[in-house]
Specification:
Layout: H1 2-19, E1 42-47, H2 55-70, E2 75-80, H3 88-97, E3 102-104, H4 126-133, H5 136-149, E4 151-158, E5 163-167, E6 182-185, H6 189-197, E7 201-204, H7 210-216, E8 221-225, H8 226-231, E9 240-242, E10 250-256, H9 257-262, H10 265-299, E11 303-305, H11 309-318, H12 320-328, H13 334-345
Parallel strand pairs: 1-2, 1-3, 6-7, 9-11
Antiparallel strand pairs: 3-10, 4-10, 5-8, 5-9
Helix pairs in contact: 2-10, 4-13, 6-12
């Protein structure tokens, strides 16, 4: 029912945009003050799952204002956050079929090769993450995803920073502490395999339903960056946190290919440039807000454990099996793993 209502909402919005002359219509005669007057008017609807105070939401506000200013208002951008249009998977499905022009989020069901960047303990610094996301390998994987999904990925940034463990049973100080815990995942293969390598069981829960799942005990624990924990108030329903920095997620900006190809080249260039600036701003916000978000967890009474180097190494050793499993499942090749590791080593 939720999915049906979400799709209906998108269709109604799209219909209104068309009726109002917001999509693909020829504009009035060119004006000396408006070099884009003859290129038509377009509406770009974007969905995502984060609340208003999350870096994804804030950086998309910049994208909206930049695109509308630089196209002289000929491209109007409407953003629907906080899961208004469904789960991330549902929103990506809407982008693929064209009822939604764009979405941002760590949704890889249709683009599993992007999961290579989510291998556990692959990167440990912002410089390493940036180098990975801006690499030739990332560009190659995005091009593959575009060909397979009928989308264009116009930016790849950080979905929220390094990810931490939390649960309601006890502190997690070593891999054995995860044994028997029921940990939430988004159905992402690398998260599932990581938790299983550490002895936990996993249960899939959509992001928008995670707070209630933790509150009601559907899941004992979860993993998310501090910015998500704070903005979604997971600290209200979780007691024990481990600052393990085990993973980061790419945040692809998917755009419907047919809509993208309908744009004049001038607008494509502007939108792509604005998306690049948005991605840089997003990552700056992630870095700025992580310590503030972490402090919000402390202020709310959360118990944060920071492993020693020796303890952290035990976690890294326990999940090494995940690398070979991901090679065996086709997410990446041994050569691509070596390329990822070389990128990290050089940054």
């Amino acid at each position: 029912m939720k999915k049906a209502l979400s799709v209906l909402l998108v269709l109604l919005i799209a219909s209104f945009a068309l009726f109002a002359g917001g999509s693909n219509e020829s504009s009035a005669a060119a004006s000396a003050d408006d070099p884009f007057a003859g290129l038509g008017n377009y509406t770009m609807m974007i969905g995502h799952s984060q609340p208003a105070d999350n870096p994804r939401s804030i950086s998309l506000e910049k994208f909206v204002s930049d695109v509308e200013a630089k196209t002289n208002g000929h491209v109007k951008v409407q953003v629907f956050g906080n899961g208004q249009l469904g789960t991330e998977k549902e929103m990506l499905e809407q982008v693929v079929i064209g009822t939604l022009q764009g979405m941002r989020g760590g949704q890889f069901d249709f683009t599993p090769r992007l999961l290579m960047f989510t291998l556990p303990f692959l990167a440990q610094t912002r410089e390493e993450v940036t180098a990975l996301l801006h690499s030739d390998l990332a560009a190659k994987v995005c091009a593959e995803a575009e060909a397979e999904t009928g989308t264009v990925i116009i930016n790849l940034c950080d979905a929220g920073g390094f990810r931490q463990f939390s649960n309601n049973k006890h502190a997690i100080t070593k891999p054995e502490d995860l044994q028997g815990l029921k940990m939430r995942t988004a159905g992402m293969e690398t998260i599932d395999r990581t938790f299983r390598a550490l002895g936990a069981t996993t249960t899939p829960v959509p992001y928008s339903d995670l707070y209630m799942a933790l509150r009601t005990g559907v899941a004992d624990g979860q993993e998310n960056p501090w910015t998500n924990v704070s903005s979604m108030k997971f600290y209200e329903v979780q007691k024990y946190f481990t600052e393990v920095n085990y993973q980061f997620h790419p945040d692809p900006f998917y755009v419907n290919e047919a809509w993208w190809n309908s744009l004049p080249e001038e607008f494509q260039t502007i939108i792509r440039e604005c998306a690049t600036e948005m991605g840089t701003y997003n990552d700056e916000l992630v870095d700025e807000l992580q310590s503030e978000a972490r402090q919000a967890v402390v202020d709310a009474g959360g118990d944060i454990y920071v492993p020693t180097e020796e303890e952290l190494q035990a976690f890294k050793d326990a999940v090494q099996v995940v690398y070979q499993q991901c090679i065996d499942s086709g997410i990446l090749s041994a050569e691509e793993l070596a390329e990822l590791q070389e990128i990290v080593a050089n940054n």
